[in-house]
Amino acid sequence: MTFQELVTLARQGGIEELHVEKLEGDLFLYRAVTSAGSEVIQNESGGVLRPASLQDARKRLRHAGGFDGVPLYLVQQSPYDEMIGLEGEQEAHKAPMSLHTGT
């Protein structure tokens, strides 16, 4: 799903949750949760859309519009789990966030 498709689906009420996932090395990505499952958001070239920062992720969503009613979460894996190389299903830290700075 591209970012534009995400925006369209959000405006139609088709997004159950939107995750901004923080990966190792301050890399970020978007993951949309719908009734069909979850999907990483892609750029127009088919690669993973990577906001430059958490602030950039919020700014893109605010600028696009249509996300005010979508539950938004910051999701990150435990650095300890990454360091020891745990395989399989890892418990992620998931915290509610807003489109605005500070929460």
Short description:
This protein is α+β, with helices and mostly antiparallel strands and 103 residues long. It contains three helices and five strands. The chain has a five-stranded mixed β-sheet with strand order 3-2-1-4-5.
Report on this model:
25% of the residues lie in helices and 30% in strands. With 103 residues, the chain is of the alpha+beta class. The protein has one domain. It starts with a helix and ends in a 6-residue tail after the last strand.
Uncertain segments are none
N-C termini distance: 26 Å
The strand order across the widest sheet is 3-2-1-4-5
Q: H/E order of the elements? A: HEEEHEHE
Count up the helices: 3
What is the number of domains?
1
Helix content: 25-40%
Helix/strand/pairing class, anyone?
alpha+beta
| Biggest sheet record | 5 strands, mixed
Radius of gyration: 14 Å
Averaged pLDDT: 89
The general outline is: globular
* Beta strand %: 25-35%
Number of strands: 5
Keyphrases for this structure?
103 residues, alpha+beta, globular
